[in-house]
Design brief:
Layout (H helix, E strand, L loop, with lengths): L3 E5 L3 H14 L4 E5 L2 H10 L3 E6 L10 H9 L5 E5 L3 H10 L4 E4 L4 H12 L12 H10 L3 H11 L4 H8 L3 H15 L4 H10 L7
Parallel strand pairs: 1-2, 1-3, 3-4, 4-5
Length: 208
């Protein structure tokens, strides 16, 4: 059966380079490209044969590690390999905490990228972190939010009001409020400002 691989990066030339690497590792794969986080989420939702997601952290619509959390929530069984120019030492552990199986720096040569893709295709989904450390517990909770809840939380981070969020996500204000209530309950906070602070503290609002 033909499998598909999503390449989510806002640079066409780098998408082309990753496509070449995918073709060398999985010649029969169907490559799907996305230049924004919204397009990537749409592609993930529509693809029933997705085998791998190659994801850049710096994409329009993404802040910090939010792209990983959102796509992992959409298809938790599909491995995500982050290919980014973010600082490798700091990012490698963080991407795994939000659901990715590994991190690869964009400066890596083609052979290294191919090896990482081959390993990712044979890797099981990343296990959710288990720790008694408060930050790890909350990080795991954020990673476990539903795709819609993550979209609402990201909109809150951007300073959008419920009315704006409802319009942009195509839902009623009452539905937005219901999602916010669920988010605050999961994060164990009492208002949207505290929810935003929690998300920022975990890197969802960091520009890489």
């Amino acid at each position: 059966m033909t499998r598909s691989v999503l390449i989510a990066d806002d640079h066409p030339l780098f998408r082309q380079a990753l496509g070449l690497a995918v073709d060398r590792v999985l010649p029969d794969a169907r490559v799907v490209e996305a230049g924004t986080l919204a397009a990537a989420a749409k592609a993930v939702g529509e693809s029933g044969d997705l085998a791998l997601i190659l994801l850049d952290l710096k994409m329009p619509g993404a802040v910090g590690y939010s792209g990983i959390a959102l796509l992992h929530a959409e298809k938790p069984e599909v491995p995500i390999l982050v290919v980014s120019s973010a600082d490798g030492a700091a990012a490698a552990a963080e991407v795994r905490a939000f659901g990715a199986i590994g991190f690869l720096h964009k400066d890596s040569d083609l052979a290294t990228i191919e090896q990482a893709i081959a390993a990712a295709l044979g890797a099981p989904p990343a296990p959710q972190p288990r720790s008694d450390e408060p930050v790890d517990t909350v990080r795991s909770t954020v990673a476990g939010l539903t795709p819609t809840q993550l979209k609402v939380l990201l909109a809150v981070l951007e300073g959008q009001l419920n009315k704006q969020i409802a319009y942009n996500l195509g839902m009623s204000e009452a539905t937005v409020k219901a999602h916010m209530t669920a988010i605050m309950r999961k994060l164990d906070v009492s208002n949207r400002t505290q929810a935003a602070l929690v998300a920022r503290s975990l890197g969802l609002d960091l520009r890489h």
